[in-house]
Design goal:
The chain is mainly β. The chain has one helix spanning 2-16, and strands at 52-59, 69-79, 84-95, 98-113, 116-132, 154-169, 173-179, 202-209, 211-212, 217-228, 234-243, 247-254, 266-275, 279-288, 299-307.
Length: 323
């Protein structure tokens, strides 16, 4: 009964967007943001020293019916002696009766600077939105077909967009920022709404630094900052340790949550290993701190990545150390 009430609350909150100009973060959360940087800025394309393919799966709030779920495929490669980067993101997300699929192409022009490269990137994307109002989980105190403001059946919409970003990869540090979707398009499925729901512009900044402790250990403090207009500022802070460039373990803290002030959104644990710098397996688990912790069993995320060709193909010293 609790689960059914929660999913009903989620759906009704989404339906309220049809009539109320609410604003908040719409993009999905990813615990392993440090391994998924092309998602946040097209300037990252080509920064891994060679062609790399990544697969990511995330299941949020395990045990809660209709909770968010995401699948992502990402590929990027440098070209023309590291001076150009190309990237592709294909990802699907769902929550309750809502799902979307996004296809995105990224281009980065990479300028040698100091001991690294500065990437200036542009991206173009097409996003498919769908909401299924015939879903059997959608319930109300009366027949929802009696309310003319609620659409019926499967509602779909396609939205083209473009983004921009910058990214600098140095010998032992990186920093970047981006706006993946600059156009705030209409995503309202209702008819005749004078306050349509819109796809909000999201701003991201991220960075990290490698601290050598000895020939065996290195520390990686990293951060991801997230901002949407008229919504609370959000951030992820991570500290990871890497052993012999093969094993890594990290702990993250995600700001946010359901109260202000509060404990935050979650504490996240990340574990992974590499094989010859070419294959990476990494998993993350989020421990919720907000009140939803009483109704779910955590969040699980797994990432697989394979980089083709020889290691460290660029002039940067082991550029995949951060990847």
């Amino acid at each position: 009964m609790i689960q059914r009430n929660l999913i009903l609350l989620t759906v009704l909150t989404g339906l309220s967007l049809l009539a109320t100009p609410l604003r908040g973060q719409q993009d999905g959360q990813y615990t392993q943001f440090m391994f998924n940087r092309l998602y946040y800025t097209p300037g990252f394309a080509g920064s891994e020293g060679g062609p790399c393919l990544s697969l990511l799966y995330r299941k949020q709030w395990i045990g809660l019916e209709g909770s968010p779920e995401a699948q992502l495929i990402s590929f990027n490669t440098p070209l023309f002696q590291q001076r150009v980067g190309l990237g592709v993101n294909l990802y699907r997300t769902s929550i309750g009766i809502t799902r979307n699929v996004t296809a995105e192409m990224a281009y980065s022009y990479r300028i040698p600077l100091g001991q690294g490269y500065l990437g200036i990137g542009l991206s173009g994307s097409v996003r498919y939105y769908a909401e299924d109002y015939s879903d059997e989980r959608l319930k109300g105190t009366q027949d929802i077909n009696l309310d003319q403001s609620i659409p019926t059946g499967l509602q779909t919409r396609y939205l083209p967009n473009f983004g921009a970003g910058v990214y600098y990869q140095g010998k032992d540090w990186y920093v970047g920022g981006g706006v993946p979707r600059l156009v705030e398009g209409n995503i309202d499925f209702s008819n005749g709404s004078d306050r349509p729901s819109t796809e909000l512009r999201h701003y991201y900044a991220l960075g990290g630094y490698r601290i050598h402790l000895n020939n065996f250990l290195a520390l990686h403090p990293q951060f991801l900052l997230k901002y949407v207009g008229d919504a609370p500022f959000d951030a992820d802070l991570n500290l990871s340790v890497e052993m012999k460039d093969q094993f890594h373990a990290g702990l993250s803290y995600r700001f946010g949550g359901d109260r202000d002030p509060g404990l935050g959104e979650s504490i996240d644990v990340i574990l992974g290993f590499r094989i010859r710098q070419q294959f990476l397996l990494s998993v993350g688990y989020d421990i919720a701190l907000s009140e939803i912790r009483d109704y779910q069993n955590g969040t699980f995320e797994v990432l697989l990545r394979f980089c083709f060709g020889k290691d460290a193909a660029s002039a940067i010293d082991n550029p995949r150390f951060f990847q």
